[in-house]
Amino acid sequence: MLDLLKRPSWCALLLGLFLLGCLGQARADNCTASMTAVSFGPVDSTAGTDYYANGTLSVTCTVLLGSLGTAVVPSVAICLNLEGGSGGTIAARNMLNGGSTLPFNLYRDNTYAAASVWGSTSGGTAQPVTSSMTGLLGLGTATQTFTIYGKIPAASLAGARLQNSTDTPFTADFTGAGTLQYAFYGLLAPATGCRSGTTVPFSFKATATLTNNCFISTSPLVFAGDNRVLAAAVRTSGSLGVRCTAGSAYQVSLNGGSVANNPGARRMASAATTGTIGYEISNTLDGPLWGDGSNGTRIVSGTGSGAQQTLSLYGRVPAQRTPAPGDYKDTVTATLTF
Description:
By secondary structure, this protein is mainly β. The chain has two domains: 27-210, Sandwich (Immunoglobulin-like), CATH 2.60.40; 214-337, Fimbrial-type adhesion domain (Immunoglobulin-like). Helix content is 10%, strand content 42%. It contains three helices and 22 strands. A five-stranded antiparallel beta sheet has the order 1-3-8-6-5. It starts with a helix and ends with a strand. Residues 1-27 and 66-71 have low confidence and may be disordered.
């Protein structure tokens, strides 16, 4: 009877050792990473402002059956690396559309400092996103998320060009540029951290749409001086400012002022008298009259550069009968079409 009682206990002991051995040999721990798109949406190069966008970077680690070392206090060291992507280097990333570039960068925090540019363990000053998950359950899954910060500096927008004068999408593709390095450990982290473990890729895109926009600014065109007799032509000059997205084709027309239907026969009038003075506006000295395309006038056209462009205004009062003394004025409307 005594021998019969001992045998089941001995078998149970052997079974326990076998299971424990299996725990030490089998291993199915793994981590994966994913990243949402960093979408800036519409950006306007004429606005003179920075643009920001965020993305969410997620790491999920699973400990299905850990080794003896990880079964006690399973932990994992994590490094999330990002190279330059499809449009540049780590220090100077770009979104692309054909040959046009839209500079931006991605950061590990919202200081947007050069020291916080998202980089990699491959070297250089830009560092990866690093972290660790500790105290993982022997059997289970855990996820950790990180916010990635994107910025397009206002100064970078000026060179971004539209395609065919329409709103233009730009993209940076990070397929093959992102990698997760991870290493599981037990009580003591490995001296080399994440670098001693496994590397898996992750991909995402950064996007923005460059919008077609323009602004116009004007200043008075003044025929200065004390013009007593209009026996000879009187001239003056001024300027009109246009700021359009690079690659945006535009046209500027001028109406006839008080002579609304005929910009080729403009006249200034005095509020104190019934007299008027005929005058002309052109884009070049004594050149074709600048108007709306009617009555022999021309419309001035150009292509935006992203920066302020100056269009010359030349005013001329031809020799004519001199009206009664007074201040003579007219209001001309400039229309910018793009």
